[in-house]
Amino acid sequence: MSVVDNIIAPVRELSEYTLKATVARVKLNQNESPRDLSPELKRLVLDRVAALPWNRYPDFVPADVLAGIGEMHGLGGENVLIGNGSNELIQALFAACVESGTKVSIPSPTFTLYAMMVRANGGEVDNVRLRDDLSYDLDAWRERAARGDRHLLLCSPNNPTGSTVTPKFVSELASATSKLVIVDEAYAQFGDDDHSRLLGDHDNVVVLRTFSKAMGLAGVRLGYALVHRSLAPEINKVKLPYNVGIFGLEVARLALEEPSLFVGVREEQRRERGRLVEALRALPLEAVYDGAANFVLIRTAQASGLFESLFEAGVLIRNVGHYPMLESCLRVSVGTPEQNDEVLERIAGYLKAHSSDTDSTEANS
């Protein structure tokens, strides 16, 4: 018997979360900020970190950071958990509340890590399909909440579709169940909703946020969860200690002190998303979906060829055709205006050059 044979069954049955490490001149495949921090801001962070003792562990309870994050949402530090990216907090949350036989409802399609973490803890995944237009099926979620036998996890805006649910609807779900209602708001700043305000009325709502997207700090790996004060100590029991180092903590402190230094790209990306959607809808694509994140999802019968053509030209987007319901779909992260111009020009050029391919396909169908 090999070592692998002794691994517990739930893990052996999982697939790895992987992403091919591909270098491209224009990288629009991971929903990152298209603009890096300024050299001056980087130097400011590095100077602060350099002044700290590197031979000592970071703060076990960084009370000032927890309080500062809580204050942003009208909460206290006791409502905040921080982690090495919000993904780590998803893992800790499921380690605390999922065991063998626990049911968790998640959207389908959505971020694949949710199902992986549920199954890794022995839980059962209940996939709640989006509607054909990729919006949330609200009645299906009401029905799950009414059962009262499963946790509910909604991603809003949803990755990779951009679909949203309103705080009013989440409040309705939270009132209908005593189980957890978790909202992953990694992309919240690109939309208009803020589910964190629900914690004042519902002790079973959990909200996940990240510094990776709108604040342009994906490389720092810093996320946080907003939870009821009675739930935080329970999750802390399974969250690794010292999980955020001195670098991440100093970035967080600076971002809390001077938030305007980190959010300058957000409004640009919101504007550019609207411009991208409008321009893409003028092209012969099967669908361009509405969304509230920093990416645009499109559908075209020529998805594979278009993806490869863009990549050969140095432009990398994301082929999401392997997701449920997303056959022939591509996800384009919002870039700088110049990058978006190039993407639009190349997509339009490819579709024009291959219009006869589409015509012949339709004629033979």
- Which architecture name of the largest domain does CATH use? 3-Layer(aba) Sandwich
Q: What is the succession of H and E elements?
A: HEHHEHEHEHEHEEEHHHEEHEEEHH
Count of beta strands: 13
The overall average pLDDT, rounded, is 93
User: Are there runs of 5+ residues with pLDDT below 50, and where?
Assistant: 360-365
Shape: globular
* Backbone structural class: alpha/beta
Number of helices: 13
Distance between the termini: 52 Å
- CATH H-tier superfamily of the largest domain: Type I PLP-dependent aspartate aminotransferase-like (Major domain)
Biggest sheet architecture: 7 strands, mixed
What percentage of residues falls in helices of 4 or more residues? 25-40%
CATH class of the largest domain: Alpha Beta
CATH topology (level 3) name of the largest domain: Aspartate Aminotransferase, domain 2
What order do the strands of the largest sheet run in, or round the barrel if closed? Answer: 2-8-7-6-5-3-4
Rg, alpha carbons: 21 Å
Name the beta content range. Answer: 5-15%
What features would you highlight for this structure?
365 residues, alpha/beta, Aspartate Aminotransferase, domain 1, Aspartate Aminotransferase, domain 2, 7-stranded mixed sheet, 4-stranded antiparallel sheet, 13 helices, 13 strands, disordered C terminus
